[in-house]
Amino acid sequence: MPILGNVIGEKFERLLAAAQGGTGEADGAFSVLWRDANPALLRYLRVIAPEAAEDIAADTWVQVVRGLVSFRGDEAAWRAWLFTTARRRAIDEGRRRSRRPVVSLPELPDDAGPGSADPADLVLEKLSTEGAIAIISSLPRLQAEVILLRVVAGLDNQAVAQLVGRSPGAVRVAAHRGLRHLAATLGETTGGL
Amino acid sequence: MTRREPRREKSSRPDRPSDERSLDALLEGSQLPDGDLARWQPVSQVLTALTSVPASSELSGEAQALAEFRGQPHPVRHPGPVHHRGQGWVSWLRGPRPAVAAAAGAVLVGGLLAVAYAGDLPAAAQRLAHDTIDAPPVARSGSAAPDPDASQLPASPLGTAAGRASFPPGRGAAHPDRRTSRGSLFMSPHHHRRPGSAPGTGGGPSGRSGGGHQFPSGSPAPSGLPSPSGLPSPSGSPSGSPTPGASQQPSPSASTAPVDGATPSPWAAPSATRPSGHHHRTGASGAQSPPP
Lengths: 193, 292
What we know:
Chain A is mostly helical and about 190 residues long. Chain A is about 70% helix and about 0% strand. Chains A and B meet through helix 2, helix 3, helix 6, helix 7 and helix 9 of A and helix 2, helix 3 and helix 4 of B.
């Protein structure tokens, strides 16, 4: 049972109105919204932009805070807006980094990042969030992204299709392929043991 | 051998619908079918780990986000349209729009000045321009006078090559382009009529428009153009005799006089020494009213 995604539920409308209204409850309401969405946002960004996930998340919230007053919609629309903003920021960051490539430090240990070690081993040794992110990161980009948007962000197929600019059918096929790929990777690992 | 592998996949197609149901169930977080539970269990564990309880590191940026949220201007917290209005003006002044507005204003003022010096403004505006910026005065004859002139002078002698040829050689050859541009800029019916209709009564030779306007003494024309014999001194014309005297006589004879060359015009005088230019000027009017 997923913990992230659609966890606010019926209270969302009241929380959003309080955050938008700027009353005394605004800080608390915004804090609830942030605590609900930021972990999912970070997990998504750690897959699609692992080098600058925290920075992009902070930029995303700055952008969201600026447009919060004018936002209209339910919780699904809120999450779609949040992840769309994050995705655009990640694309901008990727372009910026391609113009100015960052050279990694040679003294960093090899197992510093989640994607450095064998992801399947990480999952089997310790099925933590970091290990799951690592094995999802081994998938092709579109497959990993649509799986994260469906599972972590809690978006439906239509919203994910709109977000990534593909047809709903293509998104569904990509998600299924990614899961099969994941199953094959995990099956090979467990079979080898 | 390798071609048979797709056939093997084709034979497993009947499993696809249940496969896809399981995959959709995994994506939606619903319960897996009983038969596929063991098969998809590792994948389900990965997806569950992706949605696990947030770690403390994932919530460490809350203070920063809250600070950003508090620092954001809010409609309830910061009411005050005057403040926003001031910001709008400041941002407007910082943008490129002031330069565009200044350029547009300069073009507008320049156009108005050109029209005013051409004498084409409405009567009241032309009077005001005459009083304030020494533009040509209002022609009182109104619309009666220009018609015969316009029909008899279809083209300006200054605006054509023949007109340029009628200039004194020393001057016309020196700055032919400048004279052409000036002549074409200020060629209005008033300018054809005024020098000829009342030569010496305000139509002194002027370098700008053929002498039709009473420019102040600073205009370069009186000193730059030849002064024909028989004409009063150009320097005395602006203040000595106003143009209404000329415009009050809208008779065709008065208006056609300079065209026929009977009254020496400042432009016609040099042409007396150059028959080609004279021929051009009379030819334009002679087609309609041949000289007796």
